[in-house]
Design a protein that fits this description.
By secondary structure, the protein is α+β, with helices and mostly antiparallel strands. It has a single domain, classed as 3-Layer(aba) Sandwich (Aminopeptidase). The chain has a five-stranded antiparallel β-sheet, sandwiched between helices. Strands 6, 7, 8 and 9 form a four-stranded antiparallel β-sheet that branches. β1 and β2 form a beta hairpin. It is globular, with a radius of gyration of 15 Å.
Length: 173
């Protein structure tokens, strides 16, 4: 478990599954991720979180408020194994999704910075990358806030959606 000033980042539990849909499978949250998904697709996304943690000891963790335990999002680091054929395949990826009720409160920055610090302390990763679609200015701002710089030579087209993704990264200090 990772603790920040306001958050705890912890592994997902099977009983988190209903809240996962409620928070993340909304038009606003999925606008740049292929739109609202069928339950089977959300099952696969949730299962990927559990599988990443089981195999690598890290994932996009559940982000909960320290004070109340309320689930506000997901953030963490993982190995980008599902990007075969792209410039980011096999790289360490930092990612975050903060539920829309909690937007603009700095939670993504707080959780992303803590996740990257955890990566440096616990894995021999030479760098960590993050990417998003060209129109996602909020995520690009979080990338810059945690010290990442644009790596245009790594930009790619997201498999399955055809969307252009802008890549940012930071080298191990």
């Amino acid at each position: 478990m990772i603790a920040t000033a306001r958050l705890l980042l912890r592994p997902w539990e099977p009983e988190d599954r209903p809240a996962f849909d409620t928070l993340f499978n909304t038009p606003a949250m999925m606008a740049r991720l292929g739109g609202v998904q069928l339950p089977e697709a959300m099952d696969a996304i949730f299962s990927k979180r559990l599988d990443d943690f089981r195999r690598h000891g890290t994932c996009y963790w559940a982000a909960v408020l320290r004070e109340s335990g309320a689930l506000v999002g997901s953030c963490g680091v993982r190995v980008a194994e599902n990007y075969t054929g792209t410039s980011v395949a096999g790289e360490w990826e930092a990612g975050w999704r903060i539920a829309e009720a909690w937007w603009r409160r700095g939670f993504a920055h707080e959780a992303a910075a803590a996740s990257i610090a955890w990566l440096w302390a616990n894995r021999p990763a030479p760098r960590v990358l993050a990417w998003t679609t060209t129109g996602n200015a909020a995520s690009q701002a979080v990338m810059r806030a945690v010290g990442m710089v644009r790596l245009p030579e790594l930009d790619f087209i997201r498999p399955g959606s055809g969307e252009a993704c802008l890549v940012h990264g930071i080298e191990r200090p």
